[in-house]
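Page 42, continued from yesterday. The earlier attempt failed because a stray header line got pasted into the input along with the sequence. Redoing it now with the clean sequence only.
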Amino acid sequence: MATFNAPDLYSKSRHMGGYGNTTVVYGSVTPTAGAVGDIYRSVIIPAGTDVTDVDIVNDDLDSNVSPTIACKVGYAPLNAADGPAAVDDYFAAAGKTFLNTAGRTSLAFQPIKFEKPVFLTITLSAAAATFAAGKVTAIVKGDAAGIK
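This time it went through. Structure tokens are written below.
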């Protein structure tokens, strides 16, 4: 039987400051269209954030459901010259259909740290047959680790 340790197992835990290191940022966008390639940016993830959780809370943006509105969730830099390079499907791959019914969706991904601020992006990969305007909120949780 083997034992496997994370490379940073003994250095990852940090003393929590007087007010804690946990950070939560959230924001909402109310799109008025839902065409393929449309990008919804609801929140900026601050530099120095080690992102561990992303939840999307949304209204029903697809009143017909056939074809079903689909998306992918990723990030893009505020300033392309500063980086990091955009990855439009880091948090959720193309084909996610959670925008077709109202609710809350938790996304599964490996934690990632951003040294520069980034937009959380929701990019539509399939349009709704009948788009219905509504609110899309992104809630980003993690550790305010600070930049290098």
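Notes: The mean pLDDT is 88.
Reminder to self: strip header lines before submitting.
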